[in-house]
Amino acid sequence: MVSDITLLKSHPDKLLLKHVQGVIDNTKKLTNSRFAELVAIFHDLGKINPNFQDKLDTQKAACGYANHAYLSAYVFFCVFCCNKKNADALKQFLDVNELTQNDIIALSVIIAKHHGNLPDFSPADYNGSGASILSKDENYALFKFLEKEQELPFYNFVNHFIQIDDFRELLLNPRIKQGYTEKFIFNGDKNKSALDFFIDYQFTFASVLYADKADAGNIENIIEDQKAAVQSFSSCFGLQLDSYLSQLKQDTELNKLRTEIRGNAIRNINEGLKHNKQVFELTAPTGSGKTLMLLSLASEIIKIKGDKRIIYALPFLSITEQVETEVLKIFKGHEDFIQRIDSKSENHRFEKIQEELDDNPSEEMIQEASILEFRDNTFAYPFIITTFVRFFETLLSNRNAELLKLPNFSNCIFLLDEIQALPPRLYGFFVAYLNRFCGKFGSYAIISTATQPNFELPKDNFDALNFFKQHFVPYSLLPLNYCKPPIKYPF
Known about the structure:
- The protein is built from 20 helices and nine strands.
- It has two domains: 5-216, Orthogonal Bundle (Hypothetical protein af1432), CATH 1.10.3210; 222-483, 3-Layer(aba) Sandwich (Rossmann fold).
- The chain is of the alpha/beta class.
- A hairpin with a 2-residue loop joins β1 (9-11) and β2 (14-15).
- The strands form two sheets. The chain has a seven-stranded parallel sheet with strand order 5-6-4-7-8-3-9. Strands 1-2 form a two-stranded antiparallel sheet.
């Protein structure tokens, strides 16, 4: 057994403390959430498990309980749930005045499930045996392991990051084990805001996933590089777009009208931004040049609010291809900043590397392929063109693979075109959700359509009204009667 934590490994080629510190550092670059930093500290603590360490050693044959995630979660629970002084230290670390049982449960679950998906916090009890958020069988196997391994350096590890009282005698306390398995019950009614609770912990989970995979894959500086790319693209975005617009002919009534509509929308978004609005709706007739209008509005947001990633989402694959063609034409010379990601898209550089790897499997090529794959999986480009399915699944998902993209949804501009393609019952829900998400993470959304939907929540749906307590309809960028003038549009 290795008792010196500085000698423990997280991966065959990486020391545990170095990996954990790398994940902490990455997490801080993605979010200012102290909750995410806390999860980063604890997520791989369970790799202290000597059986896990044996798995990393090709000279040894691992046997016995070798898992680590549930062990990490249980140690976290024992450290902070059952010792008042440590509980106070946790609140000080998180800079909060209060921590509820739901908070402790959520943090424990996130740690336990960081290699999987977020589970249902209120699972249904189908067989009458008592539903449980975490696997009871896994916990019982963990408890048996701890009975045999009572001298592991858990305290040394935690104390390396947070100053705490010793807690080791709590790990085998029968009452704590019973409470952890039988009274580990989430009560959603105790949350002040169910919406905020979900968004905050979902983003915490996603940020640690992203940070962990980036460090484990030795994808160094990926976060800084992408921030620099967004800054670089943002700095040329407006100039490139203005140059393209200046080349458009204004010798037809149609183009003059398009320019007039676009100018009106730009003036209105400036007014909305002055009043700290973050979600806008653009109702403009078919043929009015909504793609250029949306890009122009995004340019205004960048000018006023600073560098932003852009995610342009559409309902159908055929439209994503059309928008990609137009965007690449507008931003010619900056193609590396733009990537379409959907079920039919291709990353041409990645495909080329894959072909070259067959003949020359160099370390440099393998690393570049890993970086490109990671960028696609995390939407790590300054300008993304994608489908509603990819966009909304990421925004609302509990799945590990989908949530990898979520950290890059912060500090973003969402251009959502043809929103009327969604089921009408979802209009108000998605707008209300976007309102809260954008408010929390410094993002902006422009929802575009040719026929304005009803974005109000149903007045008789008390659950929805209670869930979205501060719902506002989007700020309109064109007066409702602007699309119905006395003259007939030439399109």
